[in-house]
Design a protein that fits this description.
Shape: globular
Structural class: alpha+beta
Radius of gyration: 26 Å
Distance between the termini: 56 Å
Number of strands: 30
Number of helices: 15
Strand content: 15-25%
Length: 571
């Protein structure tokens, strides 16, 4: 392996030459404490920065075994190291010329703790960090001495202050390891306890703003306190016994006045499909990993979805058993989203009336009297919700403030007052009995198993022009896939750009390896997730990218279903 001093000599030799001379530094370089691998050299100072890796052996990192194994501990610590690497890169990096020259970047996670490629902690304590660096240039000329400073001095300092155990208080490393392990154990306890979600006493659910996912601070914050009838105890491997509110299987309503915390609670449950970093306030808020948020999405594309359980044949004799549209309404989009989620294996549906289509959710007695059933194609969600649970094992959690009809179908009713829940199930049942609405259920037939939807590989085309794969990601709300744009801004459980990057690459993988004209969407999802479990995130790309994060099958299904070019054959 070439040495660090060899890299210095090359950088001095190419100083002042054209930018493409940087190609000479590709390869593996032995530094005293780690190996620096330069996988890709940018062709231009204004292009995407160069991709690098630092591989640090276990004897150098000094990470104790108890924080690097088992895997949940290692993932918790890897996210801590990635965040510290970004902080140190921002502190020590500086602009060194044109374009992105001199900047060091890494795709560090936010509040969530996800398996990611930015930092990998191995079982023996070895660490690999994948990051980017803008190689310094003046115009389009190499700045060799500045590059030497960047690669031979700044990068080693960033590595030392973010990867070595000596840079941390050992208690901090241990805390990130054990908190993540406990979250995994807590989520695994839900099914045996008959729960779909758990919110620990003392959790902090409110966030700072709609765009700042850090916990709200200050005297106005109300720590979560479980109502006694729903309080359960769970013993965790590290934290011991924790108490909190267990939300049981079935149909749960969250009611209360405006601004009392209904949507905040639902948001905590919605994000509980992921683990959270220590200090987030939601470290012990977990949900069934197959909980899916459903909302109306005016204008989205729908392809070959059987929405007939919710919407019958449309005027003009348009069938809804194989429904497609380029411009879905609120009700048809929510019906499609519900059926797509069930098809992908959702076990819990999460709905907030603020983002739902009213006519999809309810048709009250007065409207039933005014518009006869034979003129209304919509079977509202209220008339399917119990059947979904009874026949298909799909629970629901709904935030409601204005539709008392749902009291007739609820198993559990929570009332939020000043961010504090109370169990008002018995009161709600009394209200439903004392104040009957006279509403008549409208169920023309059962919700059967959805037909097998088989995507055509040719329609999932990542190519554009001369590029066989042209996939890019917008901030956190969409994917440019070939010549198509997939709008995912309404998919609330996508939490980061690296997740979107991984989803976009997974679509490419699914098309290349698993779309054979016979496999249905659930079967394709199974095979992609099995490949991820078996081979890790690197199965998505052979370029060793550092900007991928783990996603669920439900986010991949959401992206595939929103591809406007998608072609479906139903069996």
């Amino acid at each position: 392996m070439k040495e660090k001093d060899d890299l210095r000599r090359i950088l001095n030799r190419i100083d002042g030459r054209g930018y493409k001379a940087y190609k000479d530094i590709r390869g593996r370089w032995a530094f005293p404490d780690f190996a620096l691998i330069i996988d890709h050299v940018q062709g231009d100072p204004f292009a995407a920065p160069s991709r690098l890796r630092a591989v640090v052996p276990s004897g150098v990192t000094g990470l104790p075994r108890r924080v690097s194994a088992p895997e949940p501990r290692a993932v918790g610590v890897a996210c801590l190291l990635a965040r510290r690497f970004r902080r140190e890169a921002d502190r020590l990096g500086k602009s060194r010329g044109s374009g992105k020259s001199g900047r060091i970047g890494i795709a560090a996670p936010g509040q969530e703790v996800l398996e990611q490629t930015a930092v990998r902690v191995e079982e023996d304590g070895a660490v690999e960090v994948r990051f980017t660096a803008g190689l310094p240039a003046r115009g389009r000329k190499v700045m060799g001495r500045q590059a030497e400073e960047l690669l031979c001095e700044t990068v080693p300092e960033v590595v030392a202050t973010s990867v070595f155990a000596s840079a941390y208080d050992e208690e901090e490393l241990v805390r990130h390891a054990l908190v993540n392990e406990d979250a995994e154990a807590l989520r695994a306890s839900l099914e045996p306890l008959g729960l779909v979600a758990f919110v620990a006493d003392g959790s902090v659910l409110p966030r700072r703003t709609g765009v700042d996912d850090r916990p709200l601070e200050g005297p106005q914050v109300v720590p979560f306190e479980s109502p006694d009838p729903l309080r359960v105890e769970v013993e965790l491997p590290n934290a011991g016994v924790v108490t909190g509110m267990g939300i049981p299987r079935g149909i749960t309503l969250v009611v209360g006045g405006g601004y009392h915390g209904k949507s905040t609670l639902l948001r905590g449950v919605e994000q509980g499909v992921y683990n959270h970093r220590p200090g987030d306030g939601r470290e012990q808020v977990v949900s069934d990993p197959a909980a899916v948020k459903i909302r109306a999405e005016d204008g989205r594309a729908v392809t070959g979805v059987d929405i007939s359980p919710f919407i019958g044949d449309l005027p003009g004799g348009v069938s809804t058993r194989d429904f497609s549209t380029e411009n879905a309404s609120g009700s048809t989009s929510q019906a499609a989203g519900t059926m797509e989620a069930v098809e992908a294996g959702a076990r819990v549906l999460l709905v907030d009336e603020d983002t739902a289509a009213t006519n999809f959710m309810i048709r009250d007695r007065r409207m039933q009297a005014l518009v006869p059933r034979e003129r209304e194609p919509i079977t509202p969600f209220i008339d399917r919700i119990r059947e979904l649970h009874r026949e298909h094992g799909v629970s629901s959690i709904l935030v409601l403030g204005g539709s008392g009809d749902y009291l007739d179908v609820a198993d559990t009713v929570l009332a939020m007052t000043d961010y504090t829940p109370s169990d008002v199930t018995e009161t709600a049942q009394t209200v439903a009995r004392d104040f009957p609405t006279g509403r008549v259920a409208e169920t023309p037939g059962p919700v059967g198993s959805p037909p097998r939807r088989i995507p055509a590989a040719r329609s999932v085309d990542p190519s554009k022009g001369k590029r066989s794969v042209n996939v890019k990601v917008r901030d956190e709300d969409g994917i440019l896939f070939g010549a198509e744009e997939i709008d995912l801004q309404a998919v609330d459980q996508i939490v980061s750009r690296p997740q979107l990057r991984a989803v976009s690459e997974a679509l490419v993988l699914a098309r290349r390896r698993f779309m054979d004209g016979k496999a249905s969407i659930p079967e394709i999802l199974d095979r992609v997730m099995e490949a991820l479990d078996r081979e890790g995130l690197d199965v998505l790309s052979d370029r060793k990218p550092g900007d991928l994060a783990r996603f669920r099958r439900h986010e991949l299904a959401a992206a595939l279903n929103r591809l406007r070019a998608l072609e479906i054959r139903s069996d």
